[in-house]
Amino acid sequence: MRKVIKKSLTKKALPKPAGALGSLALSANQRRFLHVVENGTDLDEPSVLAGRP
Amino acid sequence: MPRERTYLRYQLYRSEARKKAAFATLQMQSTSSADMSKVRFEPIDAQALAAFEAWHDSVFSWDEVVRWKAREPLSFDIAIWFEQELCGLCFANPNNSRQRVRIVRLEGRPAKAHPLRNRIAALALIAIDEFARIIGSRLIEVQEPMPGAIPIYQQLGFAFDLQGRLVLAVENQVS
C-alpha cells in the first residue's frame, strides 16, 4: 500500500526573491526615496531618526 | 520550520534587499550629480561596530543589535557606508504575520557633516522597502519616530494611521 503524504494546508509560501539585479524595477516609493537621495531632504535630518534612546 | 532554515532563507532576502538598494542608488548615478557609486549597504557586522566606535555623541549602543539579530531571525539590519566611512545604522523587524516591517532603530552618524547627511532615512528606506516587498509585507512602520524626524518621514510618503502609527504602504506594483 502506498503511503500518502499530506501537505500542510497552513504552510505559507513566501514569494521568491527576484534573481537577477538587472531585472530591478523600482516601486513608486523607491523612486520617491531616490529623489530625496538625489536632492537631500528639505529639512535638516536629525542623527537619531527612530528608536528610544 | 526549523529556526536555522528560516534564518538562512532570510539571510538570502537580507542580502538581496541590500544588493538591490545598492543597484538602485547606482542606477541613479546617471541622472545625478551626487556620487552615489560609493554608497554601500552592508550588514551590521564587526567592521560596522568597529567604525561605530568612532561616532561621538551616539545615543544608542549598537553592539546590542548583534544579540537582537541572533534572537530575531527575520530581522533586517543595515550599515550604510560611503566608501570607508560609516554614515548610518538601521535595525528593522517584521511582526509575526510579516504584514508589517517595523523600523526599530535608525541613526545617522552624529556629525555636523558627513557625505550622506540628510540622506540617511531615504537610503535606509530604499533597502527596507525592497526587503518588505521580498517578504510580502504590506506596511512599513516607524516604531518610535523622533519628533524632529517626522516631517522627513512625511516627505518620504509616511502618514499617521487611525491608530496613530507612522506607516507607509508597500507597493507591489512597479514600473
Give structural attributes.
heterodimer, A: 53 residues, mainly alpha, 1 helix, B: 175 residues, alpha+beta, Aminopeptidase, 23% strand
Please provide a brief summary of the model.
Helix content of chain A is 23%, strand content 6%.
Outline the structure in words.
The complex is a heterodimer of chains A (53) and B (175). Chain A has 53 residues and is mostly helical. Chain A is built from one helix and one strand, in the order αβ. Chain A has one helix at 28-39, and one strand at residues 48-50. Chain A is elongated, with a radius of gyration of 22 Å. Chain B is of the alpha+beta class and 175 residues long. Chain B has one domain (3-138): Aminopeptidase (3-Layer(aba) Sandwich). In chain B, 36% of the residues lie in helices and 23% in strands. Chain B has helices at 3-28, 46-52, 64-71, 120-135, 150-155, and strands at 39-42, 76-82, 85-94, 100-108, 139-142, 159-160, 166-169. In chain B, strands 1-2-3-4-5-7-6 form a seven-stranded mixed beta sheet, sandwiched between helices. In chain B, α1 (3-28) packs across α4. Chain B is globular and about 40 Å long. The mean pLDDT of chain B is 91. Chains A and B meet through α1 and β1 of A and α1, β4, α4 and α5 of B.
